[in-house]
Design brief:
Oligomer: homodimer
Bound molecules: adenosine-5'-triphosphate, magnesium ion
Largest sheet of chain A: 7 strands, mixed
CATH superfamily of chain A: P-loop containing nucleotide triphosphate hydrolases
Shape of chain A: globular
Number of domains of chain A: 1
Strand content of chain A: 25-35%
Chain lengths: 224, 224
């Protein structure tokens, strides 16, 4: 499903060089659930953004479904994301002017689906927000906004889910429910999941855990 | 330092009524470190916002240093926050157009301090970001942005610190360092700290833990 070949990302600002990701090579099989752990600033979000085409690597190649993305234009990534990739951003990126229901419906509307209502209500209910569909992000708590972001990333049943700290603003009980939801849907639909987390108990739900430190990963990781 | 007398906050939107905070009475002594825990959506952020005057209660009174704030105008709260209250928001509220250093300096500049540099560098170093002062929030990781927000809230040595999930985007090691920093500074300066958290290990650093559920607190809480 996903293969990284010597992927690096370097930010240069005047004299200072920040090596956010350094020579990461990794393979994630179809249907696998991979957790990435690592200290604050170690490169987790940068790596997820590179895999989802939200940022371009300085070196190396991101191979999705056997196809190199090295020559991808912006429009190629947009189409791939729309059809096969769901993303839960670390700070949600919900559209403030839309209601929770409209935010969740967006991936389906962008694919031209005429009747997204039923699927949207299912996803809102699955994350415990059945009766909050009419509220805008500013009227929801931090954890409720995060759950809307999770519902939005799952609504179009993407082949690949990239989730950046999907339970960071949740209490442990609701956090467990959300991870079990992601895991159940992934098993049912054969989805591949790559998630970044600071929580040990979330990482232990994965098939494999990789550790990042200063932009590089420690080999193939360990069985969770 | 802080006394809440039957404080409630109700949001009304057409037919739906959301009781975010319901009849909370609580006293926090000067120099005390209080932790508030509770499920996602239970009212933690709303309560902190009411204590800091970032929102107005529907009923009840927020008493700070023995003075009722019932008659406070916007300008009174602004002055009180500028002089005596520091806030770490759940989603940071950093100014995107300013560097990390400028964001941290802001509370001092607003008080008319001419030479904030030395104190600003101390705070950036204290949160582990000594060499990132020139970067803007968009160039920092989630956890790094959170640490800038903590440094900004501490820089003017406020009498009262309100911190909403101050370690939510940090790994456990850096999270522990930040809480110990807050605790040490509070002990040295006699500061009162009220923090909301989903992390048991953070809450255990406090003097007392109060639980919120559906907008109300469970009495006086327990000794941590
Ligand atoms: N403007 C608003 N209109 C309607 N409801 C609101 C508004 N602001 C907050 N709420 C609701 O009030 C309740 C309490 O929200 P609050 O942000 O205080 O929760 P919290 O304990 O901080 O949760 P979290 O741990 O998820 O951050 C939530 O159910 C939220 O949806
Ligand atoms: N535009 C940028 N310019 C300079 N440095 C950057 C930029 N974006 C990210 N970085 C740096 O790259 C490093 C990796 O950042 P990244 O966001 O991937 O970390 P992370 O592992 O997700 O951390 P966290 O757990 O705090 O969210 C950080 O030190 C960050 O400051
Ligand atoms: Mg991150
Ligand atoms: Mg909150």
């Amino acid at each position: 499903m996903v293969r990284l070949e010597g992927v690096s990302k370097v930010y240069q600002r005047g004299a200072s060089i920040i090596r956010a990701v350094q020579g990461v090579s990794l393979e994630v099989a179809k249907g696998e659930l991979l957790a990435i752990m690592g200290p604050s600033g170690s490169g987790k979000s940068t790596l997820l953004n590179l895999i989802g085409g939200l940022d371009r690597p300085t070196q190396g190649d991101v191979v999705i479904d056997g196809h190199s993305t090295r020559g991808f234009a912006e429009a190629d990534w947009t189409q791939l994301r729309r059809e096969r990739i769901g993303v839960v951003f670390q700070f949600f990126n919900l559209l403030p002017g839309l209601t929770a229901r409209e935010n969740v419906a967006l991936p389906l509307l962008l694919r031209g689906e005429a009747d997204p209502e039923k699927r949207v209500e299912e996803c809102l209910a699955a994350v415990g927000l059945a009766n909050r569909g009419e509220h805008r992000p500013s009227e929801l708590s931090g954890g409720e906004q995060q759950r809307v972001a999770v519902a939005r990333a799952l609504v179009h049943q993407p082949a690949l889910l990239l989730a950046d700290e999907p339970t960071g603003n949740l209490d442990s009980k609701v956090g467990r429910e959300i991870i079990h939801l992601i895991k159940t849907l992934a098993r049912q639909g054969g989805q591949t999941v790559i998630l970044a987390t600071h929580s040990r108990s979330v990482a232990e739900e994965a098939d494999r855990i990789v550790l990042m430190r200063d932009g590089s990963v420690d080999g193939e990781g360990v069985r969770a």
